[in-house]
Ammonium transporter AmtB-like domain-containing protein
Amino acid sequence: MVRTTLMARNTDMRWRLPLVCLLWEVAMIVLFGIFVRFNPEADAAGWQKEKHHKNITSDVENDFYFRYPSFQDVHVMIFVGFGFLMTFLQRYGFGAVGFNFLLAAFGIQWAILMQGWFHTFEQGKILIGVESLINADFCVGSVCIAFGAVLGKVSPVQLLIMTLFQVTLFSVNEYILLDLLHIRDAGGSMTIHTFGAYFGLTVATILYRPNLEQTKAKQSSNYHSDLFAMIGTLFLWMYWPSFNSAVSSHGDAQHRAVINTYCSLAACVLTTVAFSSMLQKKGKLNMPFLESRLRIQDTCGVHNLHGMPGIIGGIVGAVTAAAATEGVYGKEGQVKASTFTLEKLTVLCYTGTQDAATCGILKLPFFGDPTDENCFEDNVYWEVPGDEEANLYCMHDSNEKSVTDQ
């Protein structure tokens, strides 16, 4: 009885979630009305002036026709790819897809504003076009990565607050790296993957739950949950060439990014299958080692999926930049290797210092996070269909059961 009352008191979202959602959406509407305007290529009168000024004869030259196919692919990755990737938890399918949907929908609005203030702010207005939508999705991709580290352990209100802070910090970090340090990071290995992974891991570390080991059974998967997660994996795999090339310069740069990513993805599949087969069981990486030694509770393994690959990408980028010649890439294509090293240090230091304030707020007791024994459960925040609740999603308390049996 005590535990049931505690759960209801802690996780009741009846007023908290609607208040946060509606308050922030009203704020978004007001801020969009004050600051946001279409850029010349999206504005009716502005496009006509742009055509006349640049001697453009066809509407096909509008940036929309170059960027929108890539935008569609990236958008699917954010809402379908990342959402279904995290459905591997057998009792947290609604939470994985639904909360990913919620944080992404809020995040893209706030990202358009934050990135607009830093990158496209002219004469007191934020000018947006299709590239603004792509960059907003990139920003939210970083939040989705961080969500993977705390999956099943936080409330929807905490997720919205985390999104607010992370989008803000992401935009500042992106401005420092791309505009002030002039670093090239087309695929977002550092700005998106590394920042998102270590932001999420820092949050997970500060929100560490010492009794979470008691819910190990709920952190497992079953046949159907793994199948849905595989669907998310395939969506991400298929559209990754678009993700890496979406905002690259038209022409050879975008072309190279697609080809390189396409070939790399195909090679990675064979390599992964080979090593998974060769190193089965005893040879596999053991994430509980990191959990026990570093106090990391990384639900989705974002350290392996995004953190380490992001750092490796930065190192490889530095080596590639050092080997680049003007004859191959042209003068504008050359980038100093030292900038990549500076980028890695900037991202890691910035993430660590800024997360402290964010996590301090998320630890406040009135945001409705679940108790340790009720983590990774959909029916804490969702109405689960009756049959599913009876067969799979029903919360069990081993202590109460043993008392009843006596």
User: Anything to note?
Assistant: The longest strand covers residues 125-128. The chain has two domains: 1-247+353-383, 248-278.
